[in-house]
Amino acid sequence: MHKLLIQLGLRFDDPDEERSFVRSFTLHDLGRTQAAMVLGAFVYCSFSAMDWILSPEAWAVATTLRLVVAVLVLLPATLLLTRPDARPFAEQIYLVYCVVPGCVLSVIYVFLRPSFDHGAAGLIVVILFVSTLLPLRVPSFAAFAALTWTCFALFETIATHENPGLALVNNAELGAAYALSLYGVGAREFRARRQFRTTQELHVEKERSEATLAELRAAQAQLVQAEKLAALSQLVAGVAHEINTPIGLALTTSTAFDHDLARLRRTIASGQIRRSDLTQSVERLGEGAALVFANLTRAADLVQNFKQVAVDQATEDRRRFEMRSWLVELMSTLDPLLRRKGHEVRLACPDGIVLDSYPGALAQIVSNLALNAVIHAFAEDRPGTLVIDVARLGDAQVRMVVRDDGRGIPRENLQRIFDPFFTTGRDKGSTGLGLHIVYNLVVSTLRGQIAIESEEGIGTRVTIELPVSVP
């Protein structure tokens, strides 16, 4: 029997899947089912009016039987489904709810006159109610049909008919009603099983997709972090190269210091020191000290500026800062990298623009735009110019324009320029995350807007509008 049901699509191979379906099928929209059960109890009792019309002398017995069934079986079965511990047995409760009134109906027709002449019509109403309003599966409905039809046929044998041929007609009508209802119940269950299987597959696919998406987001976060560190490492390389010069000069000067001091010591030790020699040595030492001081000051300034930029990018704290002085510090860390390749940076920013924002995010934006221009905009053999222009837009906003005179962006690439992993320089080691990071930082972190315009052979212009105070 199980194999036949499986072949007909009315049972699952997996027992766990079958139990899960039965629980879902029998308890789906339980409130509606309970309302239908209450309505069924009311209709079952209300048919006592028909009993009065058919056989007034037996009306009291018929009505009593109907009320007893409603009070002892139908309503308690309905209330029982409100208990969570009874819901695993919902299908058995439905079956009792259907079989008892169906069988008792045959008992009622024994007392009525002309007995079973109208019995088929009453039982067909019960069959229609069961097949349309209660979530019974095919085996349960078949059990209901077998029990109620057997009971009907059994009591019909002890009843009298005004027309003996009505027994055959009644059973033919019931057989057709059972067959049609069984087909309807089977079709409903078949559709429910297909929908259940589809829902399960979609649920599994959703979980798989969510897991894949989580992995992709984690990988993207790692790549974004790597891109940030890569930008910071380029700043480190540029600053280290720039610091080499003043540190080297200071080291050379200190070596000359040591030579001059040794010569001065020997002169003093000989006791034959002249005023002119002493004066010349002091002047040389003074010049050397000034040169060491100037170069060490330059190195200290570079280190301090880089330290502030690095701290901002690492901590991503919010603070108030003056735009021009902050940009000067930032560009001093980018300047070695740009100047080493022959590029020029022009900064136009009025004094007094104070932002309450995230300097680390803004530093990342400017750094990525500058490095993107170095990699993509400027040809290797042609120096270019990068212009950063900052201006107020009323009291609440600031506009920053970063433009270059490089090769520009092809028109077909402009719509994808902020997409993650889109790059035309994969062969140069680009990941395609630089401008994607810029877009996310502007929109999500700084709550601003960004737009890009470009024309091949002329250059690119990136316009960023930011709130003075991040909301």
From TrEMBL:
EC number: 2.7.13.3
Presence of the UniProt keyword Cytoplasm in the record: no
PANTHER family per the UniProt record, alphabetical: PTHR43065:SF47, SENSOR HISTIDINE KINASE
Pfam families found in the cross-reference section: HATPase_c (PF02518)
Coiled-coil residue windows: 199-229
Gene Ontology MF, one: kinase activity
Keywords: Coiled coil, Kinase, Membrane, Transferase, Transmembrane, Transmembrane helix
Protein name as it appears in the record: histidine kinase
Origin species: Methylorubrum rhodesianum
Upper taxonomic lineage: Bacteria, Pseudomonadati, Pseudomonadota, Alphaproteobacteria, Hyphomicrobiales
